[in-house]
Amino acid sequence: MQKIFPFIGFLLTLNIANAQKFEPSAPLDIPLILSGTFAELRGNHFHGGIDIKTQGRSGLKVSAVADGYVSRISVSPYGYGNALYLRHPEGYTTVYGHLNAFYPELEQWIEEQLRDRSKNNGNLYPNANQFPVSRGQLVAFSGNTGGSFGPHLHFEIRDTKTEEPLNPLEFGIQVKDTRKPDLRGLMWTDRDFGDYGTFKEGDTVEMYSTKGFDVFTTDKQDGANNNNGVYLIEASANGQVFFTAHYNRINFNTSRFINAHINYPRYATQRVRYTRLYELENNPLKITNTYPIMNPSFQASKGWISVAVDSIVQVDVSILDYEKNQRNLTFYLRGSAVLDDYSRAETLDWQRDNDLAIGPIKVHIPSGALYNTDEFNLFKKGDNTYVIGEAYVPLQKHMTLSWELDSVKQRKQGWFVWEYDNRGKKSAITGERKDAVLEIKTRSTGSYQLDQDLKKPEVRIVKNTPSLRSNSSFKEIQVHAADDKTGIDRYSARIDGSFARIDFDYKKELLKVIIPKELAAGNHNLRIVVIDGVGNTTVKEYAITL
Fold first, then answer.
1. Which of 48, 256, 341, 418 is 20 to 30 Å apart from 106, CA to CA?
2. Which residues have CB under 8 Å from 238's CB, separation 6+?
3. How far apart are CA 521 and CA 526, in angstroms?
4. Is the Cα torsion angle 96, 102, 105, 108 positive or negative in sign?
5. C-alpha span between 463 and 475 (Å, rounded)
6. E strand or H helix at 408
7. Percent of the chain scored above 90 by pLDDT?
């Protein structure tokens, strides 16, 4: 039997006891296999639920996991896509995301509400007695809508009072898992962030300065080889616990602080997420705890460790998944003489506003945007391209770039900025034009290049007769819409002069115009307006036949 550290055992017992008041059933009538686990490390956030595989297809029946009522519906091309929120009397809310469609009565109401508001997307909040549901009732069909890149069901359990997502596995949702977490890498990082290195399990690390340690770990469940997240991490030095991470509850307000929880420079360069077994200065995450240790041979503060010269310290790290499958590892620290320090570039203080300038750009970084006092490099790189932060520095808040346009550029329109990460991937930021200044806001750092978008979006009808929507009683007309630079920003449709709702599938570049059921058979006029990120507008009219 594997050893479980006392602190970890206490947490497991406590959470199982707290979750037993609410006993949901499974949302799908298939064996549950996960492609994503709760609080898994994602880009700029912790994953808020579990992702359940749907056998590679859309249209599986999704059931309410307990008695309750529909409290919210979200319809969006992005994020959770089509999402359903059910509130339960035990004090919990369940969320079902990336849905293909809702059950017929609810779908009819949604279409009527959005059309009455002349909205393509949005949030709807029915009355508590309007759509009651019972355990096992069909409420939706699984899909691939929103920011999903493969059919699956995103499922959450939230504390209704705080809206904080909780780990669904703690409520009895059964997922078969007999596999231990994987250790995929170890790193050390100097306290001043001036140096770092990798090492292996069982190695001895020379401690000539205070260091923090980073672990790259993932977990796999039975039935799939997805690299998912773990449930608990505990680290101790000479038997004394100095760090714990417990992934059972997250807060959306602090979820972006994942960029302090992971070794962000390593992620920026290699796209692997090492978990820091220490804390940065600006880090309010409640999932981690550090414990100070004062010992003749070593000291630990906020997870950072220093070792006395010629002392040997044993570090043990225990990693568990929810089913208590455990991976233990050990390495050693040897105190060494302090090396000579070296010069460093000027750093920015995370606790104050920072104002910088380079070429035509003024940079404002507000207090609290940085996760710690950090180096922030700026330099020019080719024509109209400037490097700001080098994509290695994450930001919690938006920084503002005020790009002054010269006398020639001021007379032209369509200006925007390309933002490049350090792997060359680019995204368009349109910003706001204020006379001679283009002002953009971003929570990323990288390279920035000024560009113009003068081309109107491309729009064409796919077929002028409607097709039946999947898992739905409604029909749709599909219109292709694409823009090569700043992307599709706004769109609208009218049939015979009346508003028609559009379901935008940005992944397929399709505007799906939903046909109102009361429209008579015959010929009708469809008018489409599509606007890109800088205001270039395309208007098309088509004759359609119902």
1. 48
2. 295, 297, 298, 313, 314
3. 14
4. positive
5. 13
6. helix 407-410
7. 86
- DSSP string computed for 311-378: -EEEEEEEEE-TT--EEEEEEEEEE-PPPPP-----EE-TTS-EEEEETTEEEEE-TT-SSSSEE--E
The two three-digit tokens of residue 87, written as one number: 């509130």
Q: In 10 A of CB 413, how many CB atoms?
A: 12
Q: What is the mean pLDDT of residues 193-198?
A: 92
Evaluate if pTM is beyond 0.85. yes
Query: 305: which 2 tokens?
Result: 């460790």
CB 528 within 8 A of CB 459: yes
| Side chain identity, residue 446 | G
Same domain, 399 and 428: yes
CA distances (Å), origin 166, targets 15, 68, 287, 471: 10, 18, 12, 30
Question: What is the CB neighbour count within 10 angstroms for residue 408?
Answer: 7
pLDDT of residue 381: 86
Please give the single-letter amino acid code of residue 113: Q
Number of continuous H segments (helices) and E segments (strands) in the chain: 5, 47
In a domain, 1, yes or no: no
Say yes or no: 207 and 296 in one domain: yes
| Residue that is last in its domain, among 171, 206, 237 | 171
The Cα 88–Cα 481 span in angstroms is 40
What is the average pLDDT score of the chain? 93
Per-residue pLDDT reduced to its tens digit, 114-143: 999 999 999 999 999 999 999 999 999 999
Q: Per the domain annotation, does 177 fall within a domain?
A: no
Contact 370, 393 (CB under 8 A): yes
Residue where a domain terminates, one of 435, 452, 469: 452
- Per residue in 380-438, pLDDT (tens digit) is 987 778 999 988 899 999 999 999 999 888 888 999 999 998 888 999 999 999 999 99
Which domain covers residue 358, as residue numbers? 347-452
The set of residues, in sequence order, having a beta carbon less than 8 Å from that of 417 and lying 6+ positions away, is: 401, 403, 428, 429, 431, 438, 440, 448, 449, 450, 451
At 13, phi and psi to the nearest 5? -65, -45
DSSP string for 273-284: -PEESS--SS--
The reply to whether 283 and 225 lie within a common domain is yes
Q: Which two tokens stand for residue 237?
A: 């030095």
Give 3-50 pLDDT, tens digit per residue. 555 556 655 554 544 444 899 999 999 999 999 999 999 989 999 999
In this structure, the answer to whether residues 328 and 197 fall within a common structural domain is: yes
Question: How many domains does the structure of the chain reveal?
Answer: 4
